[in-house]
Amino acid sequence: MIPAFGTQYDFQWTDLGDIELGRPNLGQQMPVVVYRLAQYTMREALSKRYGDEVAGDILRESGWIAGRELCINTLDTSKPLTAFLADLQSKLKELGVGVMRIEQADLERLTLTITVSEDLDCSGLPVSGTTVCDYDEGFIAGVLHAYSGQTFAVKEIDCWATGDRTCRFAITPDNAAA
């Protein structure tokens, strides 16, 4: 997946500002409820205005930008894939995004199945019967694109919101985008 606008977006990592300067007392930390309040009210507003499908697409695109920028600015893309994935696992845990595990990996075909437990987006949500981690799908695709230059299809196949206790993502090269 590459967003409709490709890699030509205006957001820059520096747009996040100097958090140490701006938050000398409160610092980097905030409760998950505040993140989810922003995420789910934004999803609601987008869904009401454009419909659920478009809202999901917009969240995937914003996740893709975030994943790409995080990768470019905080991860070493010169490492072999296994070392890169280990660094990604560490970074996601360090940032409180979730606990990533690799369930299956075919490094020749670049297909992966990963899980993210304690997922920032959904762990603890009520069961709704549908997957809700559109942002995560885009985020993972953006990280992998920044690492490899290839496009990836990332599909959430299990989610806390579907009654599972972890989010599971199937990742394949996106040949349709080639």
TrEMBL record:
SMART domains linked: V4R (SM00989)
InterPro entries: NO_sig/Golgi_transp_ligand-bd, V4R
Domain (4-vinyl reductase 4VR): residue spans on this chain: 111-173
Domain of life, source organism: Bacteria
Cross-referenced Gene3D superfamilies: Trafficking protein particle complex subunit 3 (3.30.1380.20)
Protein name: 4-vinyl reductase
Phylogenetic lineage: Bacteria, Pseudomonadati, Pseudomonadota, Gammaproteobacteria, Chromatiales
